[in-house]
Amino acid sequence: MDKVRRVLVHVCKDQSAPQRAQFVQSVTGHFSDGGDDEVEVSCSLERKQFVLFRGDGRRGTPLKRPAFCPIKHLSVSQSAAIPLDVQRRGVDVGVAIILQTANRRVLLTRRAKELRIFPNVWVPPGGHLEPEETLLEAGLRELKEETGLDLEPEGVSPKILGLWESVYPPMLSRGLPQRHHIVVYMLLLSRLSHLQLQASLRPSPAEVSACLWADRQLVGAVVSSVDAEDGHVPLHRLQGSVSVSQVFSDGALSEAALPLEVLLGRAPACGPDVERVSTGTKFALELWLKSLEDLRPLTPPEKML
To answer: What span, in angstroms and rounded, lies between the C-alpha atoms of 193 and 104?
Structure first.
């Protein structure tokens, strides 16, 4: 494994030197004194290291893991059963873009069913942070590669919404961990409406099988469908289906109707995965809803963006 080609997560406490996070180490748990699944941290990107730390006195960024996070629940024997080449990977960094239009809709994409990780799951555009990139550069590159949208850095007002500890498979009941990421969810504010952006949409069929522009009402229903929990989802007079842009193998788009119940589905505890909105995406969308009502500025680490 060529470590130089990947940006890895490092952690530090009490102004100590940053240490590389281990694959079998819960990054959220490292900063949680009482075992909480959500903490506030600060972050920096330097020397090909994405460093998470606490204690600088500034307002932190939310870092969260799901209650069922596989790394959190690993036993000693299960940890030892993970292949050494996987254990040596460390924790990777991903960037996902919450693209907010001028009329307050956000872009979600359905991952191609051929992808090895989270196939057929709805997520924002995003991918790995490459060496020498800033978070914004990585986000804009992935946005263009996956959707064809080529946005200028000066016109998107980037802010970090939150950090998500993502593990695949997402539950121990579905297998031992194979990938471990910290995903940076970045909000970009476009001056264009979703209809204007739709005209420039050219998704990559190798990565994206469908796209949709979700409004606040739909997002509210999606985030109410909490994974690993039962409970009624308020539909607020939503229709039974949602309009999406289906992506064909040649890149052509066609309007299709997706049953609303698909987007409200929850992560299964066992068996094959199902088409749904990812747990981390729900976390980010909930933060997005709060940002619409919160007058306080979100974290803008200029050094990283």
So the answer is: 8
CB atoms within 10 A of CB 68: 18
The DSSP code sequence of the chain is --GGGS-EEEEESTTPPPEEPPTTS-HHHHH-TT--SEEEEEEEEETTEEEEE--SSS--EEEE--TT-HHHH--HHHHHHS-HHHHTT--EEEEEEEEE-TTS-EEEEEEPTT-SSSTT-EE-SEEEPPTT--HHHHHHHHHHHHH-----GGGS--EEEEEEEEEESSSGGG-S--EEEEEEEEEEE-SS-HHHHHTT----TTTEEEEEEE-HHHHHHHHHS-TT-------TT--SEEEEEEE-TTS-EEEEEEEHHHHT----SSSS--S-B-HHHHHHHHHHHHHHH--SPPB--TTT-
Tens digit of pLDDT for each residue in 100-137?
999 999 999 999 999 999 999 999 999 999 999 999 99
131, 219 contact by CB (below 8 A): no
> What are the phi and psi torsion angles at 43 (to 5°)?
-145, 155
At 52-101, the pLDDT tens digits run 998 666 678 999 999 999 999 999 999 999 999 999 999 999 999 999 99
Q: How far apart are CA 214 and CA 201, in angstroms?
A: 15
CA distance 170 to 118: 9
Half-sphere exposure at residue 257, Cβ-oriented, CA atoms within 13 angstroms: 4
Pair 69, 283: CB distance under 8 Å: no
Is the pTM higher than 0.85?
A: yes
Which residues, including other chains, have CB under 8 Å from residue 234's CB and lie 6 or more apart? 220, 221, 224
Q: Which amino acid is at 263?
A: L
Can you tell me which residue has the tokens 């079998």? 24
